[in-house]
Amino acid sequence: HKFQIPQQGNSSILYHLLESDLRCLANPNRKLYQHNEQSKKGQVSKRRKKVHRSTRFRRPNTLALPRDPKYTRKSTATKPKFDEYSLLKYPLATERAMKLIEEFNTIVFIVDPRANKRHIKEAIGRMYNIKATKVNTLIRPDGLKKAFVKLTPDFDALDVANKIGVI
Known about the structure:
Layout: H1 11-16, H2 19-26, H3 34-42, H4 84-87, E1 88-91, H5 95-104, E2 106-111, H6 117-128, E3 132-139, E4 145-151, H7 157-164
Antiparallel strand pairs: 1-2, 2-4, 3-4
């Protein structure tokens, strides 16, 4: 910015300018207000103390950058927790299970205790290519989970049991 030295009539402007500023105005090669920049470099400006209006301190939200890993932490991908082979342990071949197969078109399996009815129904459909109308479950006193799988009228439980190897 180019400033001109004020004329004699503007004495109020001269009053507000510093002595070094007047030197800068007189010599056009020097930068105006150069001394202010130099004086600020050495000093640490005081920060105003934040007034907390609540007794509870709330941590301010800071910048959350997306993760950018240098390498993958797992060498191989994890296999699914419940595939049909780990979910269905084995079919039961007790007298009561045989009676259910013959009379109620129902097959009994011992399954993983963490499996739910939806998991069991899907696993039986994928493994044996059959459709189940409903699945009832219970947890035996020894900690194993028993699943009663009622088949649709399209499938005969005796034929499926023969194919599986229960009978």
